[in-house]
Amino acid sequence: MELTYLQHGFISSPIGYPTPRSSIIIPRNPKYKSVFPSIRRKNLCFASSGSTDTLVSGSRKEEPHVIVESKKTQHFVDLKAWMHSKGLPTCKVDLKEKSSHDQKLIPIHYVVASQDLEVGDVAFAVPNSLVVTLERVLGNETIAEMLTTNKLSELACLALYLMYEKKQGKKSFWYPYIRELDRQRGRGQLAVESPLLWSEVELDYLTGSPTKAEVLEREEGIKREYDELDTVWFMAGSLFKQYPYDLPTEAFPFEIFKQAFVAVQSCVVHLQKVNLARRFALVPLGPPLLAYKSNCKAMLTAVEGAVQLVVDRPYKTGDPIVVWCGPQPNSKLLLNYGFVDEDNPYDRILVEASLNTEDPQYQDKRMVAQRNNKLSVQVFQVKAGKEKEAVFDMLPYLRLGYVTDPSEMQSVISSQGPICPVSPCMERAVLDQLSSYFKARLARYPTTISEDEAMLADINLNPKKRVATQLVKLEKKMLNACHQTTVEMINQLPDLSVSPCPAPYAPQIR
């Protein structure tokens, strides 16, 4: 997300819409360190670059970062003019500028229609010579597949490449593009960075949301990637031959790499129907200069010799161009791109249920669950607007967990469907457990939905707090709808005086 944080090198991470997959970590071979005794800490990026793009202060344990553009670098690199000079054909878009929520941050650019567009028009076609992919970076598809299949994600490799490129300053072919990524700082539609770059205080805006744990987990994954960066250096030495003694972990501190990774994450595009070494691409004029919209169907696509954008809706001159970000829930939109879409048809929360492994009939129940396309630890998706359907989908699985009589279990095994014998007390127990779960999960949030709405009505609300509040409000709406469904079902039971069945091996819900 951020290329700007690279103090004297480059800083900056599935559209890019798929979430970066976990890398398979291999142990580092200590013998390599002894091969290069001349490597010293003085090779750190902030000691090896000739110019400074930003001044960074603060850390997660302190106040939020304060970013100030160096006066001698306060010049605008015309990205579009550079692209035209390098082969970009005439296109139908321009770049405009909008201010950031933080006056300490320079404005960001965004792509607009330079003329009226109709559905099906090609807004632009960026030639492959201006697209950064692992095939271009490594020059070898086999090495690219080997690295990303067994060791590192594509995002880590792309971030590392751009970090080394930035060390060259204006000598780098990609200098204008890197400067644009620095300007953007991986900010989303509200000019907000991914929570991966928030302070601890700012992360507390997400209290109660599983997204907070996802942020910390993703950060740990990035750290694991960082620890394996030297693998790329050793396996693809030809790529970094201009820096024969600059091992990545010696040249770039972790915080710099994380910022670079997050920047790449915010703008990488997932191309379809291309070889594996080209599937993740950085496309100038693509995101984050393009806005994401969940109900948009326009995508950057690979065509012969280029990556193009065909618009899916009419635009007037000056209108911002939008693209689809894939079927991602709001938690991923915030984590990857720094924004929340309140009209997101793909928004969802997850409910994990599991059969009790202490249950004497666990193996039989596991077999029945698998027969009905469920697992012993099953994740249910609660989609926005379809909460009732999600609750109905959970019930057969939970009822199975409540079966205690061996003869009833044999009846379930011999049946052809997911139907369990349902007694009034079992149904009450299942619904009570579900209701209690949704209430407990709602109680984790420090605010109510009405309080969230009151905060969002404040036009001066901090943008990071705004997107976080939007996220938790939408999560609470889904949880509340699930809870209301279970309460309604309890109220429809024929005899409310029936006590819940005892359940020594009740399934667990998380």
From TrEMBL:
GO terms for biological process: methylation. Residues 357-479 form the Rubisco LSMT substrate-binding domain. Gene3D superfamilies: Rubisco LSMT, substrate-binding domain, set domain protein methyltransferase, domain 1. One of its GO terms (cellular component) is chloroplast stroma. It comes from the Eukaryota. The keyword Transferase applies. Pfam families: Rubis-subs-bind. Keywords: Methyltransferase, S-adenosyl-L-methionine, Transferase. The keyword Methyltransferase applies. PANTHER family: RUBISCO METHYLTRANSFERASE FAMILY PROTEIN, UNCHARACTERIZED PUTATIVE METHYLTRANSFERASE. This is Rubisco LSMT substrate-binding domain-containing protein. It comes from Aquilegia coerulea (Rocky mountain columbine). The lineage of its organism: Eukaryota, Viridiplantae, Streptophyta, Embryophyta, Tracheophyta.
